[in-house]
Specification:
Elements (H helix, E strand, L loop, with lengths): L7 H7 L3 H12 L3 E3 H12 L9 H21 L3 E4 L4 E4 L3 H4 L13 H20 L10 H22 L14
Antiparallel strand pairs: 1-3, 2-3
């Protein structure tokens, strides 16, 4: 166990693994203490983009083994948690301001940006094809404007994605979980 002071390199090493970051986030959300079973279920749910009720036994088992044998001992060795393997009890050591910058934020509030980009691309492609074939009121002269519109929409999406990654910014038009 360390004396409580971790170097930046040690913090990067500890938090380079998503399961260790998720463990600390889960502990923070549960007032710094929890049993192993609910932690395993939640980490497995996050990894498999599902609910804790829908996590399979195999998914739970993979997470349980790695947390029990690797990740919780490492977090304890670095003085981040107190881990009692016999009681399956984990407690967050109160030095979270040291490692807070290294944690993922808003694990449950991640937007499916890839779907936004794909939707804009598909809609623009459909309009460009229709304009290219002069279907309806669309003419081939509109194709450059469609391309420009696509560029502008992708730029707006990129700005919105960047702005929403900041912890204090919320998009007014997007719900919490899409």
């Amino acid at each position: 166990m360390t004396d409580g002071t971790l170097t930046q390199a040690e913090l990067f090493d500890v938090f380079s693994n998503a399961r260790r970051r998720q463990t600390v986030q889960y502990l923070k959300r549960h007032h710094g203490t929890c049993d192993l079973a609910p932690l395993v279920e939640q980490v497995a749910a996050w990894e498999n983009d599902t609910t804790t009720d829908e996590v399979t036994r195999a998914q739970r088992r993979r997470v349980y083994i790695s947390l029990y044998q690797t990740h919780l001992p490492m977090l304890e060795d670095h003085g981040i948690v107190d881990w009692d393997p016999d009681a399956h009890r984990i407690e967050l050591v109160p030095n979270e301001e040291t490692f807070e910058p290294y944690l993922d934020r808003n694990l449950e509030d991640q937007r499916p940006w890839h779907w936004y980009y794909a939707s804009v691309s598909v809609a623009s492609a459909v309009v460009a094809v229709l304009a290219g074939f002069s279907v309806g009121t669309l003419s081939s002269g509109l194709v450059p404007f469609v391309a420009l519109g696509l560029c502008i929409l992708v730029l707006v999406l990129a700005i919105a994605q960047r702005a929403s990654s900041r912890s204090t910014f919320r998009l007014p038009f997007a719900s919490r979980r899409l």
